[in-house]
């Protein structure tokens, strides 16, 4: 075991060897091979290339050198292309802070039976008057940056549960194709995290419809790890034990405290509120909209046009049947 593996338990070391092809005898050579590829992309500013940083990309891509380098390049390229998102990229930024305090994201105290960190999002908590969807994405990315410092999570990864209870049709209309693409690029294509499962619970029909928008742009591996449970919490419990879940998910623990993770990041500044203009970080979404092209974002025949959704009256909303379900 090298010093780069010092934070791993014996069980996780074995998991890294078996599942990720991590070999302590060749670890430094693996890292150097990725580092040597940096010169092939002079258009990207690689702000970090130290051993510990490159290692998390190797783990995210099971030590396939080129795939790890491509993820590393996309990580920095995403930040170059969305500069406004990463200005004031800290927990005390007003938009990020307000999103964090509303539980975007939350993190459960207990790991699942695979050692994965369980992240939770309660979608209806989004207050459109106080912060934007881009702020929520920034808060999630910032949280992942903090969590991925833990080598155990680099190996074991994460699970995400999104509760769509009381998420309104009006809120859903803000999830534009450009905003969804920004999130997909930031989380799926540009971040060194292993997601073992993404669970939707209590999703209304229009979230099913939005899923058809993003599905063509998800990797096959990602699609296989998305579970649409609807109101069937038993199917969720088959994958995540109720003993470690809060009561909102039919678990045995007390209701989740939305400020838990925010207090960890903000510490004594948690209660220090300041004014914030919700338009401050709308630019990245407009930039993405300008860059949309048939090549970069082909719309499949299954895509639901948001303008059509907006025209549906309340009766149509109530009568529309879910597209997918595990009920």
Automatic annotation (TrEMBL):
Q: Does the keyword Membrane apply?
A: yes
Q: State the Gene Ontology BP annotations.
A: lysosome organization
Q: Where in the cell is it found?
A: Cytoplasmic vesicle, Clathrin-coated vesicle; Early endosome membrane; Golgi apparatus, trans-Golgi network membrane
Q: Which GO terms describe its molecular function?
A: phosphatidylinositol-3,5-bisphosphate binding
| Gene3D superfamilies linked to this entry | Alpha-tocopherol transfer, CRAL-TRIO lipid binding domain, N-terminal domain of phosphatidylinositol transfer protein sec14p
Q: Where is this region: Disordered?
A: 287-327
Tell me a GO cellular component.
early endosome membrane
- Keywords assigned by UniProt, alphabetized: Cytoplasmic vesicle, Endosome, Golgi apparatus, Lipid-binding, Membrane
Give yes or no: UniProt keyword Acyltransferase.
Answer: no
Q: Which domain of life does this protein belong to? A: Eukaryota
Membrane protein topology class: Peripheral membrane protein
Question: Domain CRAL-TRIO, which positions?
Answer: 96-257
What does the record note on quaternary structure? Answer: Forms a complex with clathrin heavy chain and gamma-adaptin.
What name goes with this protein?
Answer: Clavesin-2
Tell me which species this is from: Capra hircus
Upper taxonomic classification of the species?
Answer: Eukaryota, Metazoa, Chordata, Craniata, Vertebrata
């Amino acid at each position: 075991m090298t010093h780069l593996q010092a934070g791993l338990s014996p069980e996780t070391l074995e998991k890294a060897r078996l599942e990720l092809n991590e070999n302590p005898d060749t670890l430094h050579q693996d890292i150097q091979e990725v580092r040597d590829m940096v010169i092939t992309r002079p258009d990207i500013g690689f702000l970090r290339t130290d051993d510990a940083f490159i290692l998390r990309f190797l783990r995210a891509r099971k030590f396939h050198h080129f795939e790890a380098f491509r993820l590393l390049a996309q990580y920095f390229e995403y930040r170059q292309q969305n500069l406004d998102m990463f200005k004031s990229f800290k927990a005390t930024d007003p938009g990020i802070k307000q999103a964090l305090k509303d539980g975007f994201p939350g993190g459960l105290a207990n790991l699942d039976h695979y050692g994965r960190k369980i992240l939770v999002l309660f979608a209806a908590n989004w207050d459109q008057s106080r912060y934007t969807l881009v702020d929520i994405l920034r808060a999630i990315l910032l949280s992942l940056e903090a969590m991925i410092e833990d080598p155990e999570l680099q190996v074991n990864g994460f699970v995400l549960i999104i509760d769509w209870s009381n998420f309104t049709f009006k809120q859903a209309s803000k999830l534009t194709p450009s905003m969804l693409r920004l999130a997909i690029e930031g989380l799926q294509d540009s971040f060194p995290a292993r997601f073992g499962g993404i669970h939707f619970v209590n999703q209304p029909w229009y979230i099913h419809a939005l899923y058809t928008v993003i599905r063509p742009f998800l990797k096959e591996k990602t699609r296989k790890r998305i579970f649409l449970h609807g109101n069937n919490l038993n199917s969720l419990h088959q994958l995540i034990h109720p003993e470690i879940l809060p009561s909102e998910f039919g678990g045995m623990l007390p209701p989740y405290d939305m400020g838990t993770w925010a207090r960890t990041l903000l510490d004594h500044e948690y209660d220090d509120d300041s004014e914030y203009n919700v338009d401050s970080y709308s630019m990245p979404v407009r930039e993405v909209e300008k860059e949309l092209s048939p090549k970069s974002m082909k719309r499949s025949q299954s895509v639901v046009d948001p303008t059509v959704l907006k025209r549906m009256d309340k009766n149509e909303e109530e009568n529309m049947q879910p597209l997918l379900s595990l009920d």
